[in-house]
Structures are given as structure tokens and as C-alpha cells.
């Protein structure tokens, strides 16, 4: 069986939005401890990891199940959530569907067809990073928007104790510099200068679910995948994005 109750449906919507920005489908692995999912995007450039402990739910009961869903369909349903709706997720094994129930001014029920999305057994690679930056999401997202004006790739740099978001086009450039004492920075653990270039659209998709005040953990090294972590609605979201290796 599987039944989970979330007090604010709109908050859980952020988790589904974060996954659907990069993935078409996903397998949620549920057990008595909570929900987790790991998947690569179709181009195998980005990895998405979701961990939701049972403590994040108002009510939670589950035994071991793999629940494969089409994320676009799930997202459309979650878009129907009202501001004060409670969300109930229930597995209907007989009909092979996930019941998505909103309880508010009325009780509204959707039956989401399950797909044979096999569990990937992916793990988030245990990479030693030389640099860790804790930054408010809003200023980082603004820096990505600035970079988007000049190129579709962006370079993340650690240089002389500063965290820099830089983009260069054929004619124009964009640069945002975060110093350690900036009000945007929570902390910086800098081991060495580093520089890597990434697809900008992927980075923007990875951070769309974050509110401006959310704290991003960004792990960075030279020509290494960037790792971005943040918490939404009691869920831990982790993204890895492969760098663009400059010739």
C-alpha cells in the first residue's frame, strides 16, 4: 500500500515542477522510510535526485513499491491545486493508478495512470569538490537571467575568493561577482580557483523550483559536473550537470 498526506498541495507542486523541467517520466521508489527518485534527463547531461523523508508528510503509510509516472501529466494535475488545498496521494494497485486528491472547498480526485518506468538504481556520484558556495537562490537566478542576454552557455568561476557567473557572446558580455561578504552569500568554502562552463537552460530549469529566499548549495570544480542542492517542501533536491569541455 501507499498513502501520503501533504498539508499544502502547492508546496508539493514545486517538487513535481522541478523534476518535470528536466525529465519526461520518473519512478518514485516508496517504502516505509519515504520517497526517493533518481533519473537522468533524455540527453544524459543532467541527473535529478529527489529524497522526501516520511517526516515531511502529515500522514504517511507505505510498503515497498515503484510508482512510475508521466511527469507532464502529473504536472498538469498539480497545476489544478488551490492555495489552501491538502494533497492526498494513494496507490490503487487494482487499477494500476495513482490517485491524486485535493481536499479544500471541495474534494477533487484525479486517477493518474502508472507507467512501467523501471527503477534506475542510479546513485548521486560521491565526488570530492574543492569549492562549496551557499547562496540565496534569487540573486543566483538573476545572474543566470543576465547571462541569458548574451549567450546560451554560462561559466561559473571561483577566482580569488569570489564566486563569478560569467557569459560572453560574439559582441557582449555579462558578469556577476559575489564576494564572501555579499548579502547574497551565506558561506563560501573555497579550496582552489575553478572554472566550468554549462548549458544555461539546464541551470535555469534546475533552479526554477527554488524561491528567491531558498538557499542553494553549489559545488564547483574545474571541468567537473556542477552539483546544486536545495530543499523544497521537505524534499531534498539534488541536480548534477555535466560541463561543456572547451577545446
Describe the structure.
Keywords: DNA replication, DNA-binding. The protein is built from four helices and 18 strands. It has 247 residues and is α+β, with helices and mostly antiparallel strands. It has a nine-stranded antiparallel beta sheet. The chain has a five-stranded antiparallel beta sheet with strand order 5-1-7-8-9, with helices on one face. The longest helix has 12 residues, at 9-20.
Structural domain count: 2
Class by alpha and beta content: alpha+beta
At CATH level 2, the architecture of the largest domain is: Box
Q: List SSEs in N-to-C order.
A: EHEEEEEHEEEEHEEEEEHEEE
CATH topology of the largest domain: Proliferating Cell Nuclear Antigen
Q: Label the overall shape.
A: elongated
Itemize the secondary structure elements and their pairings.
Layout: E1 2-6, H1 9-20, E2 25-31, E3 34-40, E4 46-53, E5 59-62, E6 65-70, H2 71-78, E7 86-92, E8 97-103, E9 107-113, E10 131-136, H3 137-148, E11 153-159, E12 162-168, E13 173-178, E14 185-190, E15 194-199, H4 200-207, E16 215-220, E17 226-232, E18 235-241
Helix pairs in contact: 1-2, 3-4
For the structure shown, list the relevant keywords.
Proliferating Cell Nuclear Antigen, Pr_cel_nuc_antig_C, 4 helices, alpha+beta, DNA polymerase sliding clamp, 18 strands, 247 residues
Amino acid at each position: 500500500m501507499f498513502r501520503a498526506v501533504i498539508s499544502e498541495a502547492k508546496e508539493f507542486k514545486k517538487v513535481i515542477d522541478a523534476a518535470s523541467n528536466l525529465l519526461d517520466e520518473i519512478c518514485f521508489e516508496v517504502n516505509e522510510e519515504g520517497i526517493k527518485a533518481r533519473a537522468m534527463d533524455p540527453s544524459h547531461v543532467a541527473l535529478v535526485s529527489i529524497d522526501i523523508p516520511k517526516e515531511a508528510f502529515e500522514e504517511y503509510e507505505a510498503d515497498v513499491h515503484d510508482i512510475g509516472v508521466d511527469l507532464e501529466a502529473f504536472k498538469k494535475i498539480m497545476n489544478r491545486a488551490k492555495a489552501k488545498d491538502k494533497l492526498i496521494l494513494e496507490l490503487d494497485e487494482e487499477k494500476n493508478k495513482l490517485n491524486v486528491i485535493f481536499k479544500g472547498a471541495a474534494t477533487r480526485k484525479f486517477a493518474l495512470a502508472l507507467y512501467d518506468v523501471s527503477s534506475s538504481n542510479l546513485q548521486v556520484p560521491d565526488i570530492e569538490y574543492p569549492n562549496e558556495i551557499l547562496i540565496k537562490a534569487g540573486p543566483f537566478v538573476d545572474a543566470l537571467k543576465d547571462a541569458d542576454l548574451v549567450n546560451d552557455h554560462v561559466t561559473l568561476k571561483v577566482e580569488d575568493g569570489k564566486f563569478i557567473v560569467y557569459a560572453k557572446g560574439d559582441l557582449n558580455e555579462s558578469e556577476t561577482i559575489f564576494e564572501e561578504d555579499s548579502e547574497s552569500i551565506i558561506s563560501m568554502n573555497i579550496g582552489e580557483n575553478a572554472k566550468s562552463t554549462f548549458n544555461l537552460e539546464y541551470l535555469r530549469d534546475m533552479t526554477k523550483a527554488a524561491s528567491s529566499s531558498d538557499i542553494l548549495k553549489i559545488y564547483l570544480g574545474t571541468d567537473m559536473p556542477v552539483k546544486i542542492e536545495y530543499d523544497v517542501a521537505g524534499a531534498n533536491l539534488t541536480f548534477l550537470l555535466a560541463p561543456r569541455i572547451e577545446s
